[in-house]
Write a structure and sequence with these properties.
It contains five helices and six strands; from the N terminus they run αααββαββββα. By secondary structure, it is an alpha+beta fold.
Length: 210
């Protein structure tokens, strides 16, 4: 065999070996990883450890219990009670009516002591009417009157953040009674003869302290 023929055969054999090696390597290449279709991990859920304390409510201010003397007697009643009084037993503050709002000595002494007070009466001079005093008192004056009432037959009880005391009596001809109400610096005293409108004291209290 000629030398150049021999060299040509060697080159062809080497080329075939290179091609076979490349094919073998291609068969060993790993397939590409599948492409993920996820758009990203979901947002993690945030958990707060422990209990969240309830928001404390701001306490409402206590209502002011002290009162001032009203400008006029009409101001101590609701519109409904004033209308009833004007219809059932006028007039208001007739100068001939001298009835006091109490017969209790200790109470009369406080009224006569110079305590600031507003007196209101209904009716003509007769055995049919009532008289009310709205009075500013200190704690000592109020307690003096309160302490004197049970011995005179008054029944006292807690009422609308204050103390209410009542008595009612009758004789052969008349029905009469008294009511007293104490709260903070206020004292409402009422004496009536044959004319005691239902809910009278309660209406005055609700109007003054409402």
């Amino acid at each position: 065999m000629r030398p150049d023929r021999y060299v040509s055969l060697i080159r062809r054999g080497a080329l075939a070996l290179v091609v076979l090696s490349a094919v073998a390597l291609a068969g060993c290449t790993a397939d590409p990883a599948p492409t993920s279709t996820s758009t990203g991990d979901p947002t993690p859920e945030i958990t707060t450890l422990g209990e969240t304390p309830d928001a404390s409510e701001t306490p409402s201010p206590e209502p002011v219990a002290d009162i001032s003397i009203p400008a006029s007697c009409e101001d101590i009643y609701s519109a409904e009670m004033l209308s009833l009084l004007q219809a059932d037993n006028p007039p208001l503050n007739d100068p001939g009516v001298t009835m006091d709002s109490t017969e209790v000595v200790e109470a009369l002494e406080v009224l006569a002591s110079g305590a600031q007070t507003l007196r209101c009466s209904w009716g003509l001079p007769s055995s049919y009417g009532l008289a009310t005093n709205v009075t500013i008192v200190d704690a000592s004056q109020a307690q003096t009157v309160i302490d004197s009432l049970p011995d005179r037959g008054f029944a006292c009880e807690d009422f609308e953040d204050g103390t209410a005391c009542r008595i009612q009596r009758t004789d052969e001809e008349n029905a009469f009674g008294e009511t007293h109400y104490f709260r903070a610096n206020g004292w409402v005293s009422t004496r009536w003869i044959n004319f005691g409108p239902q809910g009278y004291m309660e209406d005055v209290v609700a109007t003054l302290w409402g």
